[in-house]
């Protein structure tokens, strides 16, 4: 039996557990909220845990804009083994002892992967190549290449180095790291490329997303908690937390609701601005263009 939703349309900040897909989380929230109008911003692999931003009802229209925000991850990189998926869920394709790798070499390799870089996503990913998911092409045995894409790694910090021995007896080195990056960055690919640059191979053994834009894991809810009480961040609060705010008067609010462009507020920011009416109602997302506020999504009227 489908449950009736217990909150207004807005965002649900989920602490995704390991072993479930992002689509699986969406399916769970559809049942809990009693609506099919549910989506997510930024996929997490089944192996990964942490912040998954879910939109319910009208808030699904915010998700595409939220995907452009910065993210923070805690991860463990294993040097000494490469896998077909660039993470621990894939078959090991090559091994090389990593016990002679120095901290200085690691730091130099990380420096090359920090800042504005060109990155080739993992082939076992959801990225589309000519309209078809990359992982589907891999499953079907296709030979193909993914073009490198620009991305930004704001910081790539190593906290601890731990020597270990892999199941095949290879001496490996596990790195506990934190990565702050732009949307679209593949942490698996960073692990792969760091290992490749060091000549020993590398892959990801653990991944936890701790922040998506303004939403941090400390404010996220587990699926068990959401089953007890569906906690929804109202759309007005979600927009105010994620975007620059512009408050307008009643006349401008009425014009905006009918699709009329307003004079730009002159905030001098790139990207969406959240517009609020005099009573605090969230009205729209707009962008400044040529002195005008161009609506990109209107939520009233």
UniProtKB/TrEMBL annotation:
Keywords: Isomerase, tRNA processing. SUPFAM superfamilies: Pseudouridine synthase, PUA domain-like. Its EC number is 5.4.99.25. The keyword DNA repair does not apply. Transmembrane segments: none annotated. Residues 188-230 form the tRNA pseudouridylate synthase B C-terminal domain. Residues 30-187 form the Pseudouridine synthase II N-terminal domain. It catalyses: uridine(55) in tRNA = pseudouridine(55) in tRNA. It is an enzyme of class 5 (isomerase). Residues 243-299 form the tRNA pseudouridine synthase II TruB subfamily 2 C-terminal domain. It comes from the Bacteria. The active site is at 45 (nucleophile). The keyword Zinc does not apply. Pfam families: TruB_C, TruB_C_2, TruB_N. Gene3D superfamilies: Pseudouridine synthase, PUA domain. Belongs to the pseudouridine synthase TruB family. Type 1 subfamily. HAMAP family: TruB_bact. Responsible for synthesis of pseudouridine from uracil-55 in the psi GC loop of transfer RNAs. NCBIfam families: TruB (TIGR00431). This is tRNA pseudouridine synthase B. It comes from Kitasatospora nipponensis.
